Amino acid sequence: xxxxxxxxxxxxxxxxxxxIAKHKGCSSSGKTGCGSKAGSGDLPPEIWxxxxxxxxxxxxxxxxxxxxxxAVAPACNMQCNYCNRKYDCANESRPGVVSxxxxxxxxxxxxxxxxxxxxxxxxxxxxxxxxxLANPDKTFxxxxxxxxxxxxxxxxxxxxxLALPDYVDTIQKFNxxxxxxxxxxxxxxxxxxxxxxxxxxxKRYRGKEASKILSERQxxxxxxxxxxxxxxxxxxxxxxxINDQHLVEVNRAVKAxxxxxxxxxxxxxxxxxxxxxxxxxxRGPTAQELKALQDKCEGEMNMMRHCRQCRADAVGLxxxxxxxxxxxxxLRTQEVKYDLxxxxxxxxxxxxxxxxxxxxxxxxxxxxxxxxxxxxxxVAVATKGGGRINEHFGHAKEFQxxxxxxTGAKFIGHRRVDLYCQGGFGEEDALSTILQALGDCHAVLVxxxxxxxxxxxxxxxxxxxxxxxxxxxxxxxxxYFKEYLAKVERGEIEHRARGDAQIRQGGLLAGVA
Amino acid sequence: MPYKIxxxxxxxxxxCEPECPNKAIxxxxxxxxxxxxxxxxxxxxxxxxxxxxxxxxxxxxxxIDTRYxxxxxx
Lengths: 513, 74
Hints:
Chain A is α/β, with parallel strands linked by helices.
């Protein structure tokens, strides 16, 4: 029976993790990312092969596999109004931020240490804290050393695209088969509001001229990469009033040039970060504004909704940051042996778990077949990984959000609730923070919840549900929806539209034990 | 006059170092960057604008060092 197999896999996974933790002298407790877009979905097999274990390219994979960034690339070749290179705080989590810079040699040591302690870490990315291609020597030296020492790890990089056309051949030579380009505009008028200057061919350009060059370089680079079969993701920062509507055009332009995935992220602009946007009071989008734009672009191409906008030195599953376990100081005294066999064994178990999860979801979907209802609800989920409802309400650092309808459960985002470096929310108590973050949800599925928060959630119109504890997320979300529909039809409850929710900005607590 | 880097502003990002045509920029023991005044030519003869100034992400960080006379092209 599938159920029996499932639990035995879970036990074996736990045992293996304990063994690994003991062996490496490192904590095995890890919090995770989340939700699910069904397995291979409609992807061609060769593409699925490339993305299936890449947490940043497959929503499904990000429940199971982890990534790490090494901060070997401090220099940048342009200025963005949402970035302040002077600001760094260990409690802060967002792109461009990093606690310690590494040399390529230190980076490789760190990669091996992480790969041994976290066997589901399958991807190494270089994302800054500046631009990897503004530091080509350090970036490619790191890739070369990692490819030699840990050939099973996938390499990827994330760039602003300005220098990209000059390095496409090198990228291909180093077998980097995932590249992310941040493209916020294709219109220099819009760009002038986002980029004060670029440094290009020994000259500083400003205003529209700068953005014109940048846009041409980005699109040229994207086209060159996709021509060579290198998978490209495009990141866009949604800045309300500046590029929000324009991103629909960006979406079309990058799709036409072969981009595989589009990741529209909310602007992070807390004033204390000291960015131009932050100081100017430029706001980020609300949860529903972001979702509406993502939904609008989704007809055109795959949208990424599980991005956690992580630091340039993040380690772990998306949604967790274990970088503090692998500081230079700790690595100095640590002997690292690269244990490929344990990594493979662990990953095989993960694959079995993924199959079981997909099966469970299919079964639940079949039970929903024939249901005719236009109803859609959002449910929040507390999870620490593996695609299961396995986190206590009070321990959740983030909630994953699923949209459930007669067609199934779809991951649409996540809401962080554990912030402490946050902008302007410090005085609120934890529960009202959560209520604001889940303002658009009808229910929250958790492993366990206390009586007090239960009552407050109910009063706020959010149904607290612990009956699916330990079970797979999507299967449970669909089951909950079925029950919800039935209750509505029987007249036991009245379906009401929910409000909007706040996207919170700030640092993840994870890693600071 | 050569350029200098205001240490209080420097983030140590290293962007300036490879751009200097005179190899006048070096890393200091505390991870920041500095300019050797004897090597700096203000980029005269190489580029229209001093490269460290043009690439530095922090305003007013690469500035003229008034303690020295202006650079004379030989």
